[in-house]
């Protein structure tokens, strides 16, 4: 288990940084590349700058290169090319234990014969931390994670969530300036996951840690991250804040992956500095914000992307599309509605998410509206499979 190697590192604890400034360090990777035997390019030219104290998530479906990228940063996997700099120091050729990074993996191997206290104290013992200091640090870390009452228990006397918290404490106790986490909550049920997400976020903020977190779960990424790198086929499609990814997706893949966008086929009818007008195949005219990243005018066919939560209803005959309500599904305070566009028998129904109070009735004829600012336009050059829903993670 690589986690244990890291603990042989003997570095001065970062307790010397003044309180309040955080212990995190900036990290940058440039042109990282990894090809495995058999010609699989797992990671292809990944570059990013991560600020000190930032919470960054690698988000992508299974096989998109998240773990390989993280393992190269950690030093457990040698890149074919590229470099990794932590806190201004080039660590590309350093052994994992010399990089000053902490790890939490999905498989949190605690020492079964040791108590919670002993498990958490272990990394400090390896570092020859004086006894009094060790006691103080272990006590503080356990308290922060709400485990003070369980210090004498052994891992088998704890629930899954508690064990995962101990693993987190063991990584946090020596205050690494950067913590890498690979699907650390993947094995837990939803309620526990939600609870631990909050814990992780709180601890990260409190200590000002730099965190790189890997998940295939969009919601988890949105909840935790300052910025998200959306990965696909070993590349980063977009590295941005959750809001930018949602509101300004740069590729159809990002629009679909982050919010299950509706894609409406059509062509550009007019393009001005203020807006783009898309004539939909179903006949209506959809106004989108001006497009800069792409040049849809050069590709006659486009797809306009709108998140279900950004669509509104209006009287039939108005808006960019009129259709018939097919399904109405209540999901708590939200209602999911599908509308079959008139004159588009073979087009996908449009999906909406509305406040429950505004639900239409099945069979009702309605019009659809969207704020131009919520509409992204993409050249229609991407094949359908690329928009596929992510496959469930295979537990790598
Ligand atoms: P993720 O963590 O996003 O699921 P990985 O980084 O584990 O993705 O894998 C990226 C690609 O590299 C996949 O196609 C995977 O099959 C391949 N891969 C990962 N590890 C190895 C390995 N040790 N040997 C060969 N191929 C690998
Ligand atoms: Mg993985």
From TrEMBL:
GO-annotated cellular components: ATP-binding cassette (ABC) transporter complex
Region annotation Disordered: where it falls in the sequence: 1-29, 355-396
EC number: 7.6.2.9
Gene3D superfamilies per UniProt: 2.40.50.100, P-loop containing nucleotide triphosphate hydrolases
Keywords for this protein: ATP-binding, Nucleotide-binding, Transport
Pfam families the UniProt entry points to: ABC_tran (PF00005), TOBE_2 (PF08402)
Composition skew (Low complexity), residue ranges: 375-385
Protein name as it appears in the record: ABC-type quaternary amine transporter
């Amino acid at each position: 288990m690589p986690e244990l190697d890291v603990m042989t590192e003997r570095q001065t604890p970062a307790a010397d940084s003044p309180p309040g400034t955080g212990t995190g360090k900036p990290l940058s990777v440039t042109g990282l590349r990894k090809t495995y035997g058999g010609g699989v390019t797992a990671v292809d030219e990944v570059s990013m700058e991560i600020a000190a104290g930032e919470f960054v998530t690698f988000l992508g479906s299974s096989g998109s290169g998240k773990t390989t990228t993280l393992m190269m940063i950690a030093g457990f996997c040698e890149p074919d090319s590229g470099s990794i700099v932590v806190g201004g120091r080039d660590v590309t050729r350093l052994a994992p234990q010399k990089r000053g990074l902490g790890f939490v993996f999905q498989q949190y191997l605690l020492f079964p014969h040791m108590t919670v206290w002993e498990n958490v104290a272990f990394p400090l013992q390896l570092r020859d931390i004086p006894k009094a200091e060790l006691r103080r640090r272990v006590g503080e870390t356990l308290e922060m994670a709400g485990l003070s009452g369980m210090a004498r228990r052994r891992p088998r006397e704890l629930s899954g969530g508690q064990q995962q918290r101990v693993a987190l404490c063991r990584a946090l106790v020596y205050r690494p300036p950067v913590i890498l986490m690979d699907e650390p909550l993947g094995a837990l049920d939803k309620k526990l996951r939600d609870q631990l997400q909050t814990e992780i976020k709180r601890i990260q903020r409190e200590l000002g840690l730099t965190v790189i977190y890997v998940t295939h779960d969009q919601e988890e990424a949105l909840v935790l991250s300052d910025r998200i790198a959306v990965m696909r086929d070993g590349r980063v499609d977009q590295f941005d804040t959750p809001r930018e990814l949602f509101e300004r997706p740069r590729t159809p893949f990002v629009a679909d992956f982050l919010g299950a966008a509706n894609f409406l086929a059509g062509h550009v009818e007019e393009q001005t500095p203020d807006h783009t007008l898309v004539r939909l195949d179903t006949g209506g005219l959809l106004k989108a914000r001006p497009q800069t990243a792409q040049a849809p005018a050069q590709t006659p066919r486009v797809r306009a992307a709108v998140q279900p939560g950004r669509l509104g209803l209006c009287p039939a005959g108005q808006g960019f599309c009129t259709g018939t309500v097919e399904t109405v599904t209540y999901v708590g305070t939200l209602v999911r509605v599908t509308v079959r566009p008139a004159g588009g028998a073979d087009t996908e129904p449009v999906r909406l998410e509305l406040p429950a109070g505004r639900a239409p009735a099945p069979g009702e004829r309605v019009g659809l509206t969207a704020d131009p600012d919520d509409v992204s336009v993409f050249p229609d050059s991407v094949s359908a499979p690329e928009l596929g829903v992510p496959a469930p993670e295979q537990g790598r």
